[in-house]
Amino acid sequence: MTIKIIIADDHQLFIDGIKSILSKALDIETIGEANNGLEVIKLLENNIIPDVILTDIRMPLMDGITLTKTLNKTYPNLKILVLSMFDQTVDVIEMLNAGAKGYVTKNVDKSELISALHTLVKGDYYFSKNLPQDIQDWFDKERFQPESTTLTKRETEILKLIAKGRTSIQIAKHLKLSKYTVDTHRKNIHKKLGIKSNTGLVNYTLKHFQ
Q1: Residue 104 pLDDT more than 80?
Q2: Which of 197, 203, 208 shows the shortest CA–CA distance to 156?
Q3: Which of 42, 65, 108, 158 is most buried, most CB within 10 Å of its CB?
Q4: Is residue 76 part of a domain?
């Protein structure tokens, strides 16, 4: 079986490079390319239908997150594999919540990229080996659905800053609190929500405060 793909990235030189790399794989064929999400949709409307769409996150006109959300509704059988230079927890979780089935960073080698494509076609998820381990831990354990929230206004404020990647020291400085006070709030937030990892907190924030 030949895996048909569309590559979406706003850097044409990068697209050309990926096409060249994948052209050496006998069972992978690039059938389309796009510089933004809108161009991907136009390809699909012209009946150029791939097995996998390989997309970046940051693109003009329509970014990868919006594209993935749109395709998840209109073309639910398409597999979306993110290929991005960004490896922050918030980026990974946003794309997974949008409907992506895999996430690899742009510094992966050829063999891992090909392996990711094959994994998605088989119906499984794939995460780049160099992503933070707590991403995989979060995904393995949960698509966390909290029963209820009992956070105070201050805890909510701190939660949002945690989701932005701020450290306790940075949060303390921003809110003019002591680090001890911030750490205490963090412990209470984890306990109240029943979430053990910062990745889980980021996911919770994205779902409930956007």
Answers
A1: yes
A2: 208
A3: 158
A4: yes
